Amino acid sequence: MSGKVQLGDFLQTRRSQLRPEDLGVPTYGERRRVPGLRREELALLAGVSVSYYTRLEQGQSLNASPQVLDAIARALRLEEAERLHLHNLARSANGPGRGRRPAPERVTAATGQLLEALADVPAIVIGRRSDVLAWNRLGHALFAGHLDPGAPDRPAERPNMARLVFLDAHTRDLYAHWPSKARAVVGNLRLVAGRYPDDAALHELVGELSAKSTDFASMWADHRVKPCAVDTYEMRHPLVGPLTATQQTLSQGPGQNIVVATTEAGSPARTALALLAQALARPGAQGDPARPGARPEAG
Fold first, then answer.
1. Over 93-125, what HEC string results?
2. How far is CA 266 from CA 179, 196, 269, in A?
3. Burial bucket for residue 195 (CB in 10 Å: 0-12, 13-18, 19+)
4. Beta-sheet pairing, 241-251 with 230-237
5. What is the rounded CA–CA span in Å between residue 297 and residue 299?
6. What is the enclosing helix (H) or strand (E) of 63?
7. What DSSP character marks residue 233?
8. Helix 3-16 × helix 80-93 angle, to 10°
9. Fewest 10 Å CB contacts: which of 63, 150, 287, 299?
10. pLDDT by residue, tens only, the chain of 299 residues
11. What is the distance between the alpha carbons of residues 123 and 270, in angstroms, rounded to a whole number?
């Protein structure tokens, strides 16, 4: 999808999600054929001409200044991540852009060292398209114990967290409130798509998920953006049962992050993770070099 289309769709969708009465825009009791603000109302709130805003939304005006974009962001009541996303879309709309397939991502030495230091907590390294680049034993056991632990080492077979969340039954069942996790995944992919508009592999991923999951297609069309920073989820692990885990994203530079799962001290969730670690420590447990891909035994 071109930058022009993405910019126009984002503006139109967010405009339709605003209610005139929430912004003090008089409607005089009239019935509206479409929801949200009209273009002329948004333009008035942003302090730009209607014709200019219309051209911008239609992809015909591609030189909006940062000041104009910020004014539109304020009128749309965008949060900071959404404001930055708007600027990224505007920049990508300025050039034709050619789809490029970048080289497979690799875990840097520093990130690998940090992953080793986090051996006592579940941790996974995620690439910019949500590919799993590496995980420690607890991270693998918590998030994807049903998959081959060596898969991230083979670029062609790497698990992808977005695919798992939307297309994998095990991962879907892992989250007690699956829609909140799904919306976070989509919101983060939207941000990445704005930063890397020419990433052909990313466009293929979005196309695949849109075709295979009606839930993804619906959430993607909503144009919500959300950085995956800190979120708490109720998880239902098949071996150790329910637990509440806070997933925190540690940024490791452009496109590469470590996601760690932490639990409250003294909580049942902390006990559950300790039981999971004990299961992994048994001979022949999952991830043990003597039995690749073996599953830990509960009990």
1. HCCCCCCECCCCCCCCHHHHHHHHHCCCCCEEE
2. 28, 42, 8
3. middle
4. antiparallel
5. 7
6. none
7. E
8. 140
9. 299
10. 556 778 888 999 988 888 887 777 776 667 777 778 889 989 999 999 999 999 888 877 667 889 999 999 999 999 998 998 898 888 876 655 555 666 778 888 888 899 999 999 999 999 989 999 999 999 999 999 999 999 999 999 999 999 999 999 999 999 999 999 999 999 999 988 888 888 889 999 999 999 999 999 999 998 888 887 899 999 999 999 999 999 999 876 666 899 999 999 999 999 999 999 999 988 766 544 333 333 333 33
11. 15
Residue 97 one-letter amino acid: G
Rounded to an integer, what distance in angstroms lies between the CA atom of residue 184 and that of residue 202? 17
Answer for the pair 166, 227: CB distance below 8 angstroms, yes or no.
Answer: no
What is the number of helices (H) and of strands (E) in the chain? 13, 5
Structural tokens at position 10: 């984002």
Which tokens belong to 47?
Answer: 């302090």
